[in-house]
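Whiteboard transcription, Tuesday session. T.W. wrote the structure tokens on the left side:
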């Protein structure tokens, strides 16, 4: 069983409550969840801190996501809580500040990771803000037991890729059609957000299933440059 687990919060230091800023008339976090509409998986979970539940719960329900809340700063523990509650044996990890995640690349990466039995998989060479990680639940549960540093618990996967002797890592260069490491499509700052709103509006002319395919997004970004 594979579960998409999307982490989100409200108290971003650089752009406060950015996940609730409007994009196409609705909160950005809803657009992030919509980006995964066509991603094949068995469960879709929005994992947030306890103090965000009232803000996120109705949006998660609207998008067909299950809301699970957990520790604010121990995001690794939050993911493992999602694993235990869902029964998933594999996790696709995504973050709430990436409204233009490449859903087709996410599906391809996860299938590739399953085929080779990777504990951790993540593409290099994608635009910043386009990618996800595919991780075995067993590896994340081990990391929860053993990881001690703040960085390893707040950022979820560092314990895995800092211990290649313990885990089977798959970190290939992305296929050419999805490459664009010079491009930035995440939302961390006000400037990022303003660009994201423009990009979102430009993608509305496409059929829904194509709006979060890598080649469509790269083409739209490059037309704006």
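and on the right, the sequence the group agreed on:
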């Amino acid at each position: 069983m594979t579960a998409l687990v999307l982490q989100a919060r409200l108290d971003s230091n650089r752009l406060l409550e950015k996940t609730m800023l409007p994009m196409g008339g609705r909160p950005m976090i809803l657009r992030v969840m919509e980006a995964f509409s066509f991603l094949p998986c068995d469960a879709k979970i929005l994992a947030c801190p306890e103090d965000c539940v009232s803000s996120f719960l109705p949006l998660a329900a609207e998008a067909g996501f299950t809301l699970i809340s957990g520790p604010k700063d121990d995001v690794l523990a939050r993911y493992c809580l999602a694993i235990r509650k869902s029964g998933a044996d594999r996790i696709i990890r995504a973050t709430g500040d990436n409204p233009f995640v490449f859903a087709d690349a996410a599906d391809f990466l996860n299938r590739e990771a399953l085929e080779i039995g990777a504990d951790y998989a993540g593409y290099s060479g994608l635009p910043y803000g386009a990618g996800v990680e595919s991780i075995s639940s067993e590896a994340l549960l081990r990391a929860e037991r053993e990881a001690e540093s703040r960085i390893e618990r707040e950022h979820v996967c560092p314990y895995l890729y800092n211990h290649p002797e313990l885990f089977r890592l798959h970190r290939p260069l992305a296929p050419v059609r999805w490459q664009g490491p010079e491009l930035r499509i995440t939302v961390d700052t006000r400037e990022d957000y303003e660009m994201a709103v423009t990009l979102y509006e430009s993608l509305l002319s496409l059929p829904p299933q194509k709006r979060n395919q890598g080649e469509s997004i790269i083409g739209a970004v490059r037309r704006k440059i």
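Someone added at the bottom: The mean pLDDT is 96.
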